[in-house]
## 1
Amino acid sequence: MSGTEVNGPVMLAIGYGLAVVLYGGYWIYLKQKASRLETTLRRVKGSGN
Amino acid sequence: MTQQAAPETVVEPSDSEKSKRTTKWLGIAVAVSIVVFIYASFFYAPEDSVQGVVQRIFYVHVASAWIAALAFFVVFLGSIGYLAKRNLRWDAYAGASAEVGLLFTTVVLVTGMMWGKAIWGVYWTWEPRLTSVLVLWLLYLAYVALRAYVPDPSRKARFSAVLGIVAFLDVPIVYLSVKWWRTLHPEQVIVTEQGPQLPASMIVALMVGLVAMTLVYVYFVRLRFNVNDLEQQIKREVAK
């Protein structure tokens, strides 16, 4: 069995897995940041600042 | 006694509500396109007879690379636009696109390393294509860092615009590196003088990937814009 046959499926899984982690992580980061900022904006508006 | 129905009040959704709704539908389109992309790259496209199953990393790797180039082209246009018009809207487009482009380039590097390990036996080698992509990644990392550390908006926009234009010079170098120098990285297989050098089903899977990644790009840029807008609104409220 060649090295490619051994490593191929593992490297494919790690590659796609890391892509999902990176894209998904950035999506979560943006969503959470927007949610935090919306809360801050409501608080700032509510305080009549 | 008959009751008369109260006249209906038509409430037009605000621009912000419309924008939120568009982003939500775009998010649904992204989710659907990713499911189709996974199906196309893992089940529809045939297994490569030489490289085996690991060749399927090609679809996410190449689609991400093309969209990274698109993102940096938008940075380039936004930078020229800002320097020509001095309108911060151009700078905002460039800034959002650079951050998302940096993410796509990170995915290109990471997936390329996994593919390289399986085929070449090493995660990294200092050959022209890989090195020029790493330089590209560092340039846009510097761009994002610059934006984070310059507080004055017009100075930030001016410095970023210059870096956005200079950094884009590396994009054609990345693209042509496999033609100009002897490299370990394969040459282009889609855009060639003889036409695409892949089976039709592989091209279809790649095109599905391009559509999915384009939607992801547009979706992320919209979300980034939303974050920018909220930050500006908070600044305005605090300044009142």
## 2
Amino acid sequence: MSFLAGKYALYVIAAYGSTALILGWLLWATLAANARARRELAEAEKERGR
Amino acid sequence: MSIWRYANPLEFMRLSGRLLTPLWVAACVLLAVGLGWAVFGTPDDYRQGSTVKIMFIHVPAAMLSINTYAIMAIASAVGIIRRHHVSFLVAKAAAPIGLAFTAIALITGAVWGQPMWGAWWVWDARLTAVLIMFFFYLGYIALWATIDEPEKAADLSGILCLVGVIFAFLSRYAVMFWATLHQGSSLSVAEGQRMDDAFRTPLYIMMVAFYLLFIALLLVRARTEIRLRRARSLRLQALAA
């Protein structure tokens, strides 16, 4: 893992770290919105059935 | 069999439901293999040193930032011309993903540019076009969020998306029109191989992994939009009854 000790280590870690953060946020936001939509549709279908 | 049958939300939900699990699995496996190879299995470049490893995320993200915009523009055009709601919803679903990949491309580019060019940012034609495209993504998402009437929001945001196509085009081709600081394409079929196999193979794996991740995210987000639209429609029917 020479890049972790090299003179550009911070740049490489910053690039991969920021990518992980953005993709992590995107994944979380996508799955959370999907779960919310499922709940909302289930409630709407339940209300319609009443 | 016509492709237009997938403009039917039920057909779209059925097909996308079947595709999602294999897509997630393939994306995760390829991402793990690609990242492992890129970070631990590639040598440092003789000029760029270890910053060459940034290329493995910067290039796929930059490609996706432009291609996502192209997909949004095509979907918006189909939506406007053929009045297919699923097309508008696919464009809407793609926007946050494109925004995220554009942010990754801009950030990783800046982080690579500082040690290599001596500057975090330059007002180069390609960089500027990508930055403007980033603002178009933001504007598109904001427009959808601020208009309550879905039909009107779809039409107006679709038109905004089509206006911004010029910046997606410039993001891709600016290096051919102007003498830019940003280098030209390293993966060109027309100009032959410019990259050593040691870097090219893991880069291809990362590109495929990013594309699979994009498709999986797009399908989940499109399914979310279809569910929300269905829930809204049921509520309106209940109110009208």
